[in-house]
Amino acid sequence: MSETKKRRRDAEGVDMSEYAIYLENVSKTFSDGVPALSDINLKVKHGEFVFIVGVSGAGKSTLIKLLLRELKADSGIVNVNGYNLMTIKHNRIPKFRRTLGVVFQDFRLLKDRNVYENVAFAQRIAQKSEREIRRNVPAMLSLVGLAGKYKARPKQLAGGEQQRVALARALVNQPKLLLADEPTGNLDLYNTEEIMRLLETINENGTTVVVVTHNDKLVNEMKKRVVTIKQGMIVSDAQEGGYFDED
Amino acid sequence: MKIRTFLYTVEQGVIGIFKNKWFTVATVATISACLFVFGIFFAIAFNVENIVHSAEENVSVTIFFDEGISDERIAEIGDMLGRREEVYKYDFVSADDAWAEFSQQLGEYAEGFTENPLANSANYQIYLKDVKMQNQLVNYLEGVEGVRKVNKSDFTAETLSGVNMVLIYVFVGIIVILFAVSIFLISNTVTMGISVRKEEITIMKYIGATDFFVRAPFVFEGIILGIIGSIIPMGLLYYLYILATDLIKSKFAFLSFLTFLPPMNIFAYLFPFSVLIGVGIGFIGSFFTVHKHLRV
Hints:
heterodimer; A: 247 residues; alpha/beta; six-stranded mixed sheet; four-stranded antiparallel sheet; globular; B: alpha+beta; 4 strands
């Protein structure tokens, strides 16, 4: 049975092929009894650009972990890129993750490999041929403006450049969905704007982009959909919204 | 899995060996130390086993015949012995042979005898394949027509049999202990090595690497280190064995009764066995240690 069919049955008739992310009544409590997410409902259609905002400890990271299937929800429906993450088997998770691109605040590059190898690594994991790798990696490095630095090691690059390498790695396998967890958290204003411009370009090319951040200035300037999480619950979901902060 | 993916993981395993030099040195040293100790015990056990086996081959059962037995019947008994599974070889000792040998021991006292006093002492000296079979053979021989008396040495047979069993138990015990210690040490060494590379594993998993893709380079690395870690102590032991046996033979004359096996007789078994253990330690140590970090 295909993943799509499984999804439809799970969602009781909802056609999930429209959605990159489909969360319905999702809850997660940690083993110490502390609730991390409570009754979350979030639907992100393919091609959307969404900010998920909230203060530290609001549940943003837990949400990202659920979307990556690093954690499994206690209840509800969690569907990402057509994969039912509540029932997915362990050996299917790698294939699911290859439909995603992930970017972290701390870049998470392989320090002992150069820029080219860091990006090529994602292609090797996807079992691409050397010919494809030689074609795709330079193209992706050009897109993020690092074609001239393909031999550099991560520590030889500035923070903004490292994040661009991480972006190139996340995008080289042409994911349907890009998850960015505080992608500009370690960057200055100039590099923040550069990365956000890149994310917009990527989104315009058809990739769904979900950015987790607590940078209110950035969110307010971008005029995108904004989902606000507070104490494990979604308290606001506004199209072309701004940073929602009751405090 | 595609061949290029397999080759890539092998390549990464080899790269890992050179990339993490201290980890490589620590792992090889740990495996080498364990297999060096194992090799010493193995060489000693093999030599003791050889000495015991030589002694066993000299344990014999002697059968004497009824008075007036015909030569044909003695020959028939000989044929029967040749067909017994317990019998390694047997020698016929005639009454004249027995007296000739005994008279040599008596010296001038033997000259007083005009007739062979051992006229009824013709016998078969039977050597066993395994001393544990002595009782089984003796029981059979006691029922054979024409056999008057069966001489055996229970003490020698039981002692040698016991020594053999003790040797086996000690040897198996040492192997088990060394293997467990090695796995523990390797696991610790790999854990230290992996803590440095834990982030790398997490990144791999986030990007969509399968468990195999993540684990294979570590396992190949472990196997290669296991092979290196087993070859080094074997080379060293081979050299030391020749040195030690030569030294004992030349400097300790009172130990001349000890016969040492030629090194090739031992290392023909020890070398492949050690490599196998080295590979096993490398494989198990890395496989299970990486396994703990795969749940990302």
